[in-house]
Structures are given as C-alpha cells and as structure tokens.
Amino acid sequence: MSSTVLGVSDLRIYYYTLTGIVRAVDGVSLSLSEGEALGIAGESGSGKSTLGYGVLGLIPPPGRIVRGSVVIDGVDITKLKPAELRKIRWSKVSMVFQGAMNALNPVYTVGHQLSEPLILHKGLSVKESLAVAAEMVKKVGLTPDILRRYPHELSGGMKQRVMIAMALLLRPRVVIADEPTTALDVVIQAQIMNLFKELRQSERNAMIFITHDLSIIAEIADKTGVMYAGKIAELGLSETVFGNPLHPYTQGLLRSIPRLRAKEKITWIPGVPPDLRIPPPGCRFHPRCPYAMDVCRSEEPPEIEVERGHVVSCWLYVKR
C-alpha cells in the first residue's frame, strides 16, 4: 500500500497589502500518496499557484502562512527555519514554475543551472554533476549537448523540458507543476504530458498539476480538486468529479468546455471571482450560483463527504 507523502491541513496563506489582507488560500486540506497525481483547477485568482508555493515553502512577500501545516515525509515544513527549508526544497519537494520562458537565468548555461542543485545538495563535483544532468536531460527527451547552450537558444518546449529535468534531478518525493503546458503548441503539450506520465511511473513521485485546462487533469490526474476564492469547492477521484460533478461551480466549469458531439450550447459562469480582501459572507460562490439559498448568503458551507473520498463544500448536500 502506498504511503502518504504529502499532507496539507487547514492551510491559510494571506497577503498583507496596503489595501487590505488578501486571503489567497483559506483553509485548504488535502493529501497525496506515493505515485499519486492531483489536479488543481479553478479560475485565475482562485489561489492555485499560492497553494503550490505554500507546499514548496516559498511564499513571496508580503504573503505568509498564518495557519495550518504542510507535512512532507513526516516533516512539517511550516515549522522549519529558512536554512532547513533550503535543504528540503528540490530534495523533497520541487516545482516546475509557471512560464519556463522566464524561469531560467539568461546569463548561465543550462548545464550550470542544472548542476547547481546537485553541487549544493549532494556535494558532487562539477564534472559529476554535469554527468548526472546529462542523464536527466536524456530522460526528458533532450540531447546532452543542450547543457552547453543558453536559455535564449532554446525553444519554449525545450525550456519546459529543462525545467522538468531540474525539478526531477534530486528525485524529490513531491513535484508541483504550475501550468506546465502554458504557451506551448498542442503537439508539444502532448509530448510534455506523456513525459509526465512516464516519469511518474518510473520515479513514483507524488505530483500536483495546477492548470486551467480541465482536459489535462482528466488525462493525467488520479484526483481532482476544484478551487474557488481560496477554498476547495470539490475534491475527489477524477473519474467521480468529472462523471458526477456536485458543486455548482464545478458544473459550470465543465459546461464551459467545448465538446465535439454535445448538442447543448457552451455556457459560462456569470460574474467574476470575488475580491479576496473582502470576500462575500457565507459561501463565496453564492453571488454567481444559480442555486443560492438564504443560508448560502449568511453561513459558510461545511465540507460534506457525499461518498467515500468525494468531498464538496455546498449547502445543497447538507441534510436539514
């Protein structure tokens, strides 16, 4: 039986700005086992990327974790000092950052950037680290001569593969991929997703995929979490969430996807996500929800386990 490698409990990450406190992640809980993949979906501003940075322990100022825990292999990283966190990053948890075009340092070669974590974490020599880096770039479908190139000499797909290689160099237990196929053409997207599938099988990493593209989640993720306004609206096995979506927000997202053989028209969710400095009372989705009731406008919905492993935060499923 696979062991739990990641446990997030009641995680709250707020940004303290001059205009107010932005509750970007507000009480998120989830877990991942070895070799398991979780897809996180939601509109822009729902807190997906902030959640990823929180798992990495890399919240940019003026943000900070104000409550909750992130346990990786039995260690709560929210309790660690900065020096201890640096030892955990990349060795236990790593990230493929959104926008690989800007994530690589333009003044260093690919080889320099890939060898650096091996030198710092493993104590390898430059020659040894370059040999390990050469093997890893082969795994992601690149040739070792790429180590001598600078980022501006690479295509978007090649940069993305370099970032994936960097994230996997130290064989971390948890890998976070934030919009891994953004700005890539459909052929390269398919190659990248096939690469993730192969690497997950061979390396047995637990993976978190953060994306707007529900089709990617349906293809690769074992579990799906739908975020709205800093909270998990629905969480469960992907086949269950896609086959029987319960939360009105999840239903709205799925109805907005074009389908080749569908007879119904594409619809959209009216309105816009709330300002997280002043979120609406009660359920945060109620101003846009077609099923909103009086209780939705005044009280926050509890998490309801409708069936085993399928959790939804919605008053529609509370027995009264």
Question: How would you sum up this structure, described in words?
Answer:
By secondary structure, the chain is α/β, with parallel strands linked by helices. The chain folds into 2 domains: 4-92 and 175-265, P-loop containing nucleotide triphosphate hydrolases (Rossmann fold), CATH 3.40.50.300; 95-171, no CATH class. Helix content is 32%, strand content 25%. The chain has helices at 48-56, 82-88, 100-103, 110-122, 126-139, 156-168, 186-203, 214-220, 238-243, 248-255, 294-298; strands spanning 4-17, 20-33, 37-41, 63-72, 75-76, 93-96, 174-178, 206-210, 223-228, 231-237, 303-307, 310-313. The longest helix has 18 residues, at 186-203. It is globular and about 65 Å long. The two termini are 38 Å apart.
Concise overview:
This protein has 320 residues and is α/β, with parallel strands linked by helices. 32% of the residues lie in helices and 25% in strands. It folds into 2 domains: 4-92 and 175-265, Rossmann fold, CATH 3.40.50; 95-171, no CATH class.
Can you lay out the helices and strands and say which pair or pack?
Layout (H helix, E strand, L loop, with lengths): L3 E14 L2 E14 L3 E5 L6 H9 L6 E10 L2 E2 L5 H7 L4 E4 L3 H4 L6 H13 L3 H14 L16 H13 L5 E5 L7 H18 L2 E5 L3 H7 L2 E6 L2 E7 H6 L4 H8 L38 H5 L4 E5 L2 E4 L7
Helix pairs in contact: 4-5, 5-6
How far apart, in Å, are the first and last alpha carbons? 38 Å
Number of helices: 11
Q: What does the largest sheet look like?
A: 8 strands, mixed
Low-confidence stretches: none
Q: From the coordinates shown, what is the CATH architecture of the largest domain?
A: 3-Layer(aba) Sandwich
Total discrete domains = 2
Q: What's the multimeric state?
A: single chain
And the CATH topology of the largest domain?
Rossmann fold
Report strand %.
25-35%
CATH superfamily of the largest domain: P-loop containing nucleotide triphosphate hydrolases
The CATH C-level name of the largest domain is: Alpha Beta
Overall outline: globular
- The helix/strand order is EEEHEEHEHHHHEHEHEEHHHEE
What is the overall pLDDT average? 91
